[in-house]
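Progress note, sequence design subtask.
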């Protein structure tokens, strides 16, 4: 089953009299459980496509389907509800709440969604273990390294067991070792949870983890290929 389906999507931005076509008649399907890299030069449309898939924006033309539902027909409130329940996000700059601990940052989406305390605790502890941060549970972001912050962000993205996690340049602010660790954690969690991961990057070292690579050039899909990824231990 498709987690995401994008059909003939076009998105333009206007600055003054200048119009830029960020995406031009793009169609793409991503199945449940896939691990996909969106690649291409700056300005190719990677981030715009992630924003449309993530229900953060609407296309000018075309449709975006999440679990078979055409979200382009939804109100802003309906898109927000669907996004919260089905899509996790991992950001380049981590986007953790600075006054909350690692535990509390992971717990926050569960709290906002009304998950019961006992289940919240069990799920947060499970995710802390999955990203290797049990001993850092009660540290705030300013007490964590960049790599640790991104691991918290990955755990938070999976807190509500979404069908899809979207990551925009997830290793851009990490050194090589921490970037590798973050990617290996995402690969393992993709295997264990069946959640689809789609990430945008221009870094060949990060592209190498993908099982499918979609290349964007000038707002169009230039190539879509299944590839052999870097081996990550189970």
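Output:
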């Amino acid at each position: 089953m498709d987690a995401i389906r994008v059909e003939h999507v076009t998105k333009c931005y206007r600055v003054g009299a200048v119009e830029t076509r960020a995406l031009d008649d793009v169609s793409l399907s991503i199945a449940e459980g896939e691990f996909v890299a969106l690649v291409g030069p700056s300005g190719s449309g990677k981030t715009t496509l992630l924003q449309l898939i993530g229900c953060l924006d609407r296309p000018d033309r075309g449709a975006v389907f999440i679990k078979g539902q055409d979200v382009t027909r939804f109100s802003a409130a309906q898109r927000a509800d669907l996004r919260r329940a089905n899509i996790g996000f991992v950001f380049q700059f981590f986007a953790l709440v600075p006054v909350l601990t690692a535990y509390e940052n992971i717990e926050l989406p569960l709290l906002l969604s009304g998950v019961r305390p006992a289940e919240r605790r069990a799920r947060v502890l499970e995710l802390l273990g999955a990203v290797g941060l049990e001993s850092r549970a009660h540290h705030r972001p300013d007490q964590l390294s960049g790599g640790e912050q991104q691991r918290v962000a990955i755990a938070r993205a999976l807190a509500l067991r979404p069908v899809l996690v979207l990551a925009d340049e997830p290793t851009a602010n990490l050194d090589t070792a921490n970037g590798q660790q973050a990617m290996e954690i995402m690969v393992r969690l993709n295997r264990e949870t069946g959640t689809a991961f789609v990430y945008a990057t221009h870094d060949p070292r990060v592209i190498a983890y993908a099982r499918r690579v979609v290349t964007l050039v000038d707002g169009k899909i230039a190539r879509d290929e299944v590839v052999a990824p870097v081996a990550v231990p189970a």
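The radius of gyration is 17 Å. Work on this subtask will continue into the next period as scheduled.
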